[in-house]
Q: What sequence folds into this?
């Protein structure tokens, strides 16, 4: 309801000022009493304005709905109040301020929060290139990370020595193209594409522009049987408890991991730079994803388990690298 009512007030402005007509995207919310506060929760709404109707598109991955579901609604303005489908029982929206590229709305049914919308450029945004099977460095004003798009729906983000996996998709609303990364991030607008660099624009609080710079691919084969031959342990940590030698058997798309008496099987995928080995549980019940850093040289394979995630006790206690040799 907040989305729909807020969008209607945009239409009100467009009737008063033709320069504000067009397509708007939700940016962030804030509380006027605290000028430094900007909500970290994205406003995933795209609003297209016409004379007597509005189209609201929700840009979000939630595992239930399509990533770009839309709703069309009629509206009416009475003074500074906007009503959806002419229903005066709905709380109104106040237009707090506006200029050529942004508008601030206050929904009186939502406490003291103000909602900021930004105007999108009139022209079409570039079409996103194929990302599946590719890796990129991520540059922004405050940090540098990297990301690998393992499949057409799963990506891994390598940040500060940790690896996290999530879902992603590309979506378009008419002439505007967006990249959606996970459930908690804002929609990223495709601003420009030049050579191996994709420039994305975020309208939420924080970094405005994000740059994806393509990394070169590296082909490494892991198929076959591997057996542990040693461990490299940090000098300031005690050696891990003896639990038998680890063995790996890589098939085309699955891997059997033997560790002492324990045997588990995972789907596996190596990212395009051949640095991150990602395991996806075949059975999601009582299980988790994980990722290892790998380095292969000839018939030797070194696995760094320190970036194992969702198993932090094992991660921080061991601090080990495991050395394998390929069995013939």
A:
């Amino acid at each position: 309801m907040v989305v729909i009512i807020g969008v209607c007030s945009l239409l009100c402005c467009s009737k008063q000022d033709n320069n504000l007509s067009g397509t708007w995207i939700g940016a962030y919310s804030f509380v006027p009493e605290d000028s430094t506060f900007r909500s970290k929760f994205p406003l995933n709404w795209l609003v297209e304005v016409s004379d007597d109707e509005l189209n609201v598109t929700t840009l979000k991955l939630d595992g239930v709905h399509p990533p770009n579901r839309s709703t069309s609604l009629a509206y009416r303005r009475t003074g500074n109040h906007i009503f959806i489908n002419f229903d005066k029982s709905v709380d109104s929206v106040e237009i707090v301020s506006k200029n050529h590229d942004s508008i601030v709305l206050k929904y009186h049914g939502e406490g003291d929060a103000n909602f900021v919308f930004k105007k999108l450029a009139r022209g079409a945004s570039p079409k996103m290139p194929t990302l599946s099977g590719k890796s990129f460095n991520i540059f922004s004003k405050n940090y540098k990370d990297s990301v690998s798009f393992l499949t057409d729906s799963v990506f891994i983000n390598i940040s500060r020595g940790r690896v996290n996996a999530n879902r992603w998709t590309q979506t378009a609303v008419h002439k505007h193209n967006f990249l959606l990364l996970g459930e908690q991030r804002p929609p990223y607008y495709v601003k420009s594409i030049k050579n191996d660099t994709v420039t994305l624009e975020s309208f939420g609080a924080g970094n405005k522009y994000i740059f994806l710079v393509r990394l070169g691919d590296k082909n490494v084969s892991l198929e076959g049987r591997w057996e542990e031959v040693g461990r490299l342990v940090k000098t300031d940590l005690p050696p891990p408890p003896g639990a038998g030698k680890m063995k790996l058997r890589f098939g085309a798309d699955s891997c059997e991991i033997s560790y002492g008496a324990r045997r588990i099987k995972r789907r596996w995928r190596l990212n395009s730079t051949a640095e991150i080995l990602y395991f996806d549980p075949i059975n999601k019940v009582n299980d988790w994803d994980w990722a290892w850093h790998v380095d292969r040289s000839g018939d030797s394979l070194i696995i760094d388990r320190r970036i194992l995630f969702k198993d932090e006790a094992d991660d921080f206690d061991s601090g080990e690298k495991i050395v394998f040799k390929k069995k013939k």
About this structure: The chain is about 5% helix and 50% strand. Confidence is low (pLDDT under 50) at residues 308-318. The radius of gyration is 25 Å. Residues 224-327 form a domain with the Lipocalin fold (CATH 2.40.128.280).
